[in-house]
Specification:
This protein has 127 residues and is an all-beta fold. Strands 2, 4, 5, 6, 9, 10 and 11 form a seven-stranded mixed beta sheet that branches. The chain has a four-stranded antiparallel beta sheet with strand order 1-3-8-7, with no helix packed on it. Strand 5 and strand 6 form a beta hairpin. The termini are far apart.
């Protein structure tokens, strides 16, 4: 059973930065793509960023491209999301998740293709 624990959220002013971390346990995740999703109050959970199993390919939602950077450390079984130039519309609970298929050779953007979700970490950006 995979367990994911997010951390690093908090309250920050617009224009500020935060670095989210996702710690995985229960299984080595080096063969699986991983992703960050977020959910704002009253809205659907939406894709933010993903990274393939080697860490060599990444992609981002248009709303965060150029501001957020996803990365992973397969030795430590960790994933990160560096968030810069934060905006009030980035306010949400951020979740990390793991692809349900190993060694996938393309990136997935649908939450239905991901298993195992963390409890989330709250990010609040004030204007």
């Amino acid at each position: 059973q995979v367990q994911l624990v997010e951390s690093g959220g908090g309250l920050v002013q617009a224009g500020g930065s935060l670095r989210l971390s996702c710690a995985a346990s229960g299984r080595t995740l080096s063969s699986y793509a991983m992703a960050w999703f977020r959910q704002a109050p009253g809205k659907e959970r939406e894709f933010v960023a993903c990274i393939n199993w080697t860490g060599g390919r990444t992609d981002y939602a248009a709303s965060v491209k150029g501001r957020f950077t996803i990365s992973r450390d397969n030795v430590l079984n960790m994933m990160y999301l560096q968030m810069n130039s934060l905006k009030p519309e980035d306010t949400a609970v951020y979740y990390c998740t793991v692809d349900r298929v190993s060694h996938r050779n393309y990136l997935e953007y649908s939450k239905n293709e991901y298993n195992y979700w963390g409890q989330g970490t709250q990010v609040t950006v004030s204007s």
